[in-house]
Amino acid sequence: MSVYEKQLRLRSSDVDMHRRLRTSTLFALLQEAAIAHTEQLGMGREKTLDRGALWIVTLQTAQIRRMPVYDEDVVLRSWPGRTMHVLFPRYYALDTAAGEPLLRASALWTLIDSETRQLVFPERLGVAIEGVSLPEDEIPLPTAPKAVSTTEERTFTVPYSYVDLNGHMNNTRYFDLAEDCISAAAEGRALRAVSVEFSREVRFGESLCLQWGREGPRWYFAGTGEQRAFRMSFTYDGE
Fold it and tell me: CATH assignment of 4-137?
């Protein structure tokens, strides 16, 4: 059975002003775990990046019992689900060092051509990942967040610092962008659930219209240019 595991202690750069794990850092940790495990399974850059193929995440979700805090020791696990044609499901679990469940997450990854930006069939690259089943630790695979009426908007232009080696805005930066706009995050309300759909990539210098609003405890946040680029859902305590 192939399950990636990493132990880590949260540093000051990992947490927000409320000393909780920053949402963007959480998803950065999940991203790095997925990449590291894919490399361990022999499906690293030699089969993908070096041959002009890029791993991208299309949908992500997390259900959170408690966000870990500054200086806390945690254990991150990740494992692949059964490949679905061009989609690679991946699951994640974050626990305390003593085994207390903190959160569970899932994502759908795929491969695109670095030049055409079109989907790549994994068989062409010899990419094959055997799925693992841990039903007691798995949450459902993500689906697109449902929209609610938006009441706020602003314009945003992607800066150089938000762009990663794939040449587009890194998926983790969307969480910082959203929580800079959503008041619940700065107020210190505990995040309980989050999901995101990336409809298309956003490149350096591109401008988007950001729109957000809430319905009860759930906030909706989306970005649109000529077409919708992404949409996100955040559910907080105390709303």
Answer: 3.10.129.10
Strands 73-80 and 4-9: antiparallel
In the chain, where are the structural domains located? 4-137, 152-236
* Token pair in block for residue 85: 């044609």
Q: Which fold would CATH assign to domain 152-236?
A: Thiol Ester Dehydrase; Chain A (3.10.129)
Same topology between domain 4-137 and domain 152-236: yes
Reported pTM: 0.94
Tokens of 206: 């591109």
Q: Is 63 exposed, middle or buried (0-12, 13-18, 19+ CB in 10 A)?
A: middle
pLDDT tens digits for range 89-132 = 999 999 999 999 999 999 999 999 999 999 999 998 899 999 99
Measured between alpha carbons, how far is residue 58 from residues 36, 75, 108, 141, 143 in Å?
Answer: 18, 25, 6, 11, 10
The one-letter code for the residue type at 170 is N
In this structure, what DSSP letter does residue 139 have? Answer: P
